[in-house]
Amino acid sequence: MLKVHLRLLWHPRNAVLASAGKDGCVRLWQLDPAGAVTMQANVSLLDNESRGWVEHLGWRPDGMQLAMASGSQVIVCSVIGVVEQAYKFPGGTVGAISWRPVGAQLAAAGYGGVRIYSVLDSIAKPHDLKWKGSLLSLHWSPDAKVIAAGCQDNTVHFWRMPSGKDAAMTGFIYKPLQAAWTPNGKWLVTGGSPLLILWPFDKSGPEGRSPLTIEWHEQAICALGVAPRSGWLATASRGGRLALWRRAGDANPRAWASLDSRVGHLQWSPRKGSALLAVGSREVSGV
Questions:
Q1: What CA–CA distance (Å, rounded) separates 159 from 140?
Q2: pLDDT above 70 for 32
Q3: Where are the domains of the chain?
Q4: Mind giving me the DSSP string for 95-150?
């Protein structure tokens, strides 16, 4: 069990789990076939210009680098924990990070919009998607054509790439921090209320259309995640109820359980054939 650490992220190819939390450290854990967990690296960010609490993690899609954000700093390290790049986000505290699904572009969001860095090109200027407000979550679509962000004003704002044309989705009760794309990119699944809300991103897009809503959770959804290969969907509510859905859009989950505390994070293993789901709660994390 991984105590204290509140952020969990599977390596996209290997049985490695990154974790982070309040102590200013990012740890890399190796899982063997028997289920044993061994710490492989410990990256401390306390010497950087940050406030210590590591709030965001993101593996590059090919697994070659891990990005992390603490305060206004975005740090990129190698798979063995060596810091390789460090950026200062212009809008202050970083609200979220997200890698482009193909290549080595890293997007960071916060007050004022989204900044996209080319981490392998030290002289490339970052690309900005400006927005007057504070962005709290960030989700790059599997086909790299859309960047969606949950906003402070209870909306989801999105940009179409590479044009930068933007639009917004409204009607959330709470701040829609929780969102995930289905593997085919046709749906963006969001929380922000007790309803599970699915926005269509087919050829017509969500503009001017109503989302698909599913009523099952009694309390607001506070965490969700879609398995990148199988499409299984995991959702969790503020009361600790965890549900597993065979696919986004099903009327009822295949299974559910009640946990002892509110779930803060869900992460499916990206490995082919794997059914592992990492769950981070306010009390303890496990696999």
A1: 10
A2: yes
A3: 1-88, 89-286
A4: EEEEE-SSSSEEEEEEEEEEEEEETT-TTPPPEEEEEEEEB---EE-TTSSEEEEE
Report residue 5 as tokens: 């650490």
Residues 6+ apart with CB under 8 A from 151: 131, 133, 134, 135, 136, 157, 168, 175, 176
Decide which of 1.10.287, 3.30.70, 1.10.510, 2.40.10 is the CATH code for 1-88. Answer: 2.40.10
User: Nearest Cα to 182, choosing from 201, 165, 169?
Assistant: 201
Nearest one of 86, 79, 84, 14 to 48, comparing CA atoms: 86
Model confidence band, residue 235 (pLDDT cutoffs 50, 70, 90): very high
Does position 283 have pLDDT exceeding 60, yes or no?
no
pLDDT per residue over 97-128, tens digit each? 999 999 899 999 999 999 999 999 988 999 99
The answer regarding whether domain 89-286 maps to CATH 3.30.200.20 reads no
At residue 162, the 3 state secondary structure works out as coil
What is the mean predicted confidence (pLDDT) over 238-255? 93
Q: What is the pLDDT of residues 73-92, one digit of tens each?
A: 999 999 888 889 999 999 99
pTM: 0.86
Q: How far is CA 97 from CA 14, 38, 44, 263, in A?
A: 21, 27, 19, 20
Phi (first) and psi of residue 203, to 5 degrees: -60, -30
Distance in angstroms (rounded) separating the CA atoms of residues 254 and 212? 19
Residues 6+ apart with CB under 8 A from 74: 67, 68, 86, 87, 88, 89, 94, 97, 106, 108, 117
Top-confidence residue, 58 or 228? 58
Q: Which residue type occupies 40?
A: Q
Q: What is the DSSP letter of 64?
A: S
